[in-house]
Amino acid sequence: MKEFYQMTKEEALSALQASENGLSDAKAQKALETHGENALTEQKKKSLLQVFLSQFADLLVIILIIAAIVSMISGNVESTIVIIAVIVLNAILGTVQYAKAEKSLDSLKALSSPKAKVLRDGQRHEIDSRYIVPGDILLLEAGDMVCADGRILYNYSLQVNESSLTGESTNVDKKEVCLEGEMPLGDRINMVYSGSLVTYGRATVLVTGTGMNTEIGKIATLMNQTKDKKTPLQVSLDQFSKKLAIIILVICAVVLLLSLYRDMSFIDALMFAVALAVAAIPEALSSIVTIVQAIGTQKMVREHAVVKELKAVESLGCVSVICSDKTGTLTQNKMTVQQIYIDGKLFTPFTLDLRNQLHRYLLYDAILSNDSSFSEGQGIGDPTEYCLLEMAQNAGVDFSVIRELMPRRAEIPFDSDRKLMSTKYNMRGKPVILTKGAVDVLLSRTDRIAFSDGVRPITEEDKKTIFAQNNSFSENGLRVLAFGYKDNDETEPLTLDDEQDFIFLGLVSIIDPPREESKAAVADATRAGIKTVMITGDHKVTAAAIARQIGIFKDGDMAITGTELDAMSDEELDEKIESISVYARVSPENKIRIVDAWQRKGRIVSMTGDGVNDAPALKKADIGVAMGITGTEVSKDAASMILQDDNFATIIKAVANGRNVYRNIKNAIQFLLSGNTAAILSVLYTSIAGLAVPFAPVHLLFINLLTDSLPAIAIGMEPADRDILSEKPRNPKEGILNRAFMTNLGIFGVLIAVCTMISYHFGLATDAATASTMAFATLTIARLFHGFNCRSKHSVFGNPISKNWWCLGAFALGLLLINMVLFIPGLHSLFSVTDLTGMQIGCIYLMAFIPTLIIQIGKIIREHIK
Predict the structure, then answer these.
(1) 325 is catalytic
(2) What confidence tens digit (pLDDT) does each residue in 734-762 have?
(3) From 58, 144, 149, 325, active-site residue
(4) Per DSSP, what are the bridge partners of residue 641?
(5) Residues 557, 559, 562, 563: is their CA dihedral positive or negative?
């Protein structure tokens, strides 16, 4: 079946059983029952209570809940309260993050106009746009928001801004023609689409699609079908949690059986197992990860990147493909005159000579055959036209003075069929027609050419030279306008017949130039092992030329259109995708397919965009990046990150920050787990040796929640290395618990555990309470010192502490807290500690420092060998 844009007006009306007088009220009501209201539908979302309860569906959380129950049964109220408080706090944090989730469909709904003008039974009515149905006759005029998809029946110079759907900011001239063959949405000039804006003219339109059957509806469907993806860190942490939970359950079961075998009471044996579980589970881990990510987001805000979802910060660190929009992101989103071809030579706006009559005539033509203007420094009108006024200003001409001296006497506005604009003025005391338009059209109506030495008949050789220059401009992605003029009779009105026999003046090439920083940013991305791909609604030649200037498109690379992409099978796309650097004239479905193809290859993909048409791909990508200045609310809602400056270079800064955040999170996890490993080994040792438990649950919770949290957060503040972008993106499939990580974990844990047990035995010579106090204090202070080891792979000499004063602050505050517990009598009963002698305090500090001393010596030796 034909698409509506391929049908004649009569065929379209017949297909919908409609007439040019509109539907009857009865038919409209029946259609409303059949097709439903003209509104977008969305999937049902979880309630906040469901989200809150789902936070407890984690094995580690369940183990902690069991530990709290056991503590409560044994009468240990303090431990029970602390454990429950930790669990509830983490659940609240998770629920709050969900509450900030997607609102994309709300923004899509807001694009629908609340009222619409239609013909019903031949009468004009203004009705709520929800009640528009296929077959309705819609009356559009300048300023209207199009509320449904439709086929144009009668067109009166209609211009529509479809940037939210196509990504291109220039207005589209609509026609009432019948189109043949497959056409991308941006080229369907006989159709209007819901969510676009009428900027000029008016039209009578047959409604062909409403609600979810519109182009915006298709986008909403794509967004509903697109599931939220877990970040690589979330996947790693999930895997880690499962493995850790299994290990904890096995060890707790072994310890419980050993304790019962040694005739320990069941409650005491359970408390021993609870102490082990509390020692093993890093209760503050999820909070630390959230805090470190939040710190990263604050830094990114200062660099003009606003991250909506904390989890997105870390994902940036392993991005290996960036699919970037062209207009405004890689380019300045500002049309600019590049070169002027006149008198057989090339000039820039700054090198035009006002003393040269040819130059002066071309500038007059550019100023006067022009309907744009400036207000408070902002261009008003067509971007292509007001860049010509900037050209005149750069050449030293005040366009307002010229317009005041030479008022317009007549005009023939630009028409997309003629591709010309002609105006009539008095110059040199006689009427002159000034014209600008497409090169091929103007040259076909030209019989003379102007040179500095005079005007002469134009030859075929002259035309070949002009076309060659035009092709040279076009191959470099430049849009080209041709300028001409002719004398005219004073008495005759300006008509279409006058657009003949022009004198050729010259060519003006125009481009939306690349941002100055784009080329360096793309080079940085390449150095960081990141492939940059341009995806744009612009034409292929223009897109490829810009991409080559910036460094995205290299020899051997491919540039394809959305139509060419549609013709490819998934297998063919998978085979060629590494070589395709530019996609032009693409649809929302094309963008999702590109992202999906890269993700099939195991790549972490970032997608940038600013229009409604970008929203599904922004949501599908691992990191969706919306434009803060030019972006629609829909794209901002669908994205994970918003660029306040719409600048590609900001994405690369964000990637560097994301890599640093992941490294800091991994170092913080290593810090937490190595300390917990030491606690587990200590509990296991005393269990096997038949000694008293070295820690009360409240000791371990004090360490995990207070003294451990401070250095872990400080590690998250560690600044990035200069060479962080010289590393390749990390493999997202690589878990946190790799061989190097586990080796360090084991070494650090054993060292701290050995020194903790030395203190324990030193205290055991006095009594079990002293032994427990000394083990608790040694483990706490050793872990505070250990914070300096986990800042980076370098020693404190290779990575001076002065680079991160937060670590010193965390160490000092942690030390203050543990000493308050040890030396303030009122806290002794709360934290299950006893009085210590000076020698015992000295033993604690010595044993606590030894592991860090050994680790730092090892790092210094390794740095020296390298």
Answers:
(1) yes
(2) 767 778 888 998 999 999 999 999 999 99
(3) 325
(4) 307, 625
(5) negative
